[in-house]
Design brief:
The protein has 22 helices and 11 strands. The chain is an alpha/beta fold and 529 residues long. The chain folds into 3 domains: 4-70 and 291-417 and 451-490, Rossmann fold (3-Layer(aba) Sandwich); 96-275, 3-Layer(aba) Sandwich (Rossmann fold); 495-528. The longest helix has 28 residues, at 263-290. Bound molecules: 6-O-phosphono-beta-D-fructofuranose. 6-O-phosphono-beta-D-fructofuranose is lined by residues 142-145, 195-197, 200, 203, 253-254, 339, 491, 494.
Length: 529
Amino acid sequence: MIRADQALAWRALQGHYEAHGRELDLREAFARDPARFEAFALQAPEVFADLSKNRWDLMTRKLLLELAHECGVPARRDAMFAGEPINTTEGRAVLHTALRAPRGAGPHSDEVHAVLDAMLAFAERVRDAPASGIRDVVNIGIGGSDLGPQMGVLALDAVASPAITVHFVSNVDGHDITPVLARCKPESTLFIVASKTFTTQETMANAEVARAWFVAGGGRNIARHFVGTTTNLEAAARFGITTTFGFWDWVGGRYSMWSAIGLPIAIAIGAEGFRALLAGAHAMDRHFVEAPPERNLPLQLGLLDVWNRDFHRYGSRAVVPYHHGLRRLPAYLQQLEMESNGKGVDLEGCALPYGSAPVVWGEPGTSGQHAFFQLLHQGIDVVPVEFIAVRTPSHPHTALHRMTLANCLAQSQALMSGKSAQQALAERAPTASSTIDADVLARHRSFPGNRPSTTLLVDALTPRSLGALVALYEHRVFTSGAVWGVNSFDQWGVELGKALCSELLPRLDTGDTTGLDASTGGLLRRLRG
Ligand code: F6P
């Protein structure tokens, strides 16, 4: 396996970029090739993708596929699925795919399915609200122990039990947990303390606040009202938790929504729904392993990310789902992509000579249109946009849905087509100043166009399609990480801040600023004052 910049295809891509990439105009490309849409359309399980509005051509894609081959992406993928310790800095296997493999089909199948069966049986008991007495479920966790379950519960709201409200508390800032507790009653609340390590400061602190609130409110049976989802069963037991659903060190935090960490989703949508979520993800796993490179969607998306980041040098990517249920997907993807591939060194610890993960950000459409789309259309920086549209809504308001879809299509169309100053000059602009020079106004009202976007389509947002969509993103991140030659499965970059926080915590009590830099010391003194 070699790093991207050592590959022959990398050199070829550099030449191709200079000759045909840098200046590629999407409008001309579509005019030249009437079959461009079909050429860059891919169908994967549950997800259709239109990659044609990206600034690449068939030769780019061919060279990128060669790059993947030279960088050993298929071999690395097979090593991941086989349970080899590809997370080298932690000496761990990376086997979230085993969590969604059918019984008997993947590594660790017996343990995986034993926990899954137990967790789903528990979820069903909780969902039986008259018998369980549970009305509110509060998931206390952060990062991967929060974002996946939260994103999933919101996305699948249409098929969730109306009898139970699922809340999420992640922030150590007490403004997060306080209003949640105010809406709950101890006797009808179930707390899930979700933490892979069961040592994370934020989660442990919030869990203690929840326990104190429970006891102060007359709650007696901690064992019944607190459960744990963790790999650290001993620490959970020390907290007083006797019902625990475990998982394993070969499940990364940001890849853990398929494990016991998915309990809030299972409670919301039930056992059958959760199994459909896993089945959708498994279908995407098979596609990633079996589909030829020319039709492999996660592979091609990951390679397109490399092209956009290292050749066009786009520093960020906006994710804009046109389904309100997916409003936490951008946040989920921030952790998935930026914690996985936001790395500065390769597997040997050598500095990368190119950019790795872009900044991933976004908001649902159409809300985002009224916030940041101005910059996307006319700003100096080019930001590739990823649109996600859902053909069939889970609400009955047909007119609203048609507007949602029309907006989604209009935005990608506008980004690409733009509008010349000449076109703008020919238009009326009723809100424009009556005294402004017409040419000046036309320049303000023109759009450069040729801005890239990808559109993903799913038929309906169901547990199965959500599972497939999330697994698609996981494998896409895997692909770009493998090409960049980074370890996509560690996160050392979060350590330093954690350690410094532990040192600063007592100083907030004592006011001791000895040895601190002047800024940190000055701020600390002001915060205490
Ligand atoms: O942010 C660092 C991190 O380790 C994430 O990778 C993880 O998802 C999160 O903290 C929470 O960790 P835990 O589940 O162990 O509480």
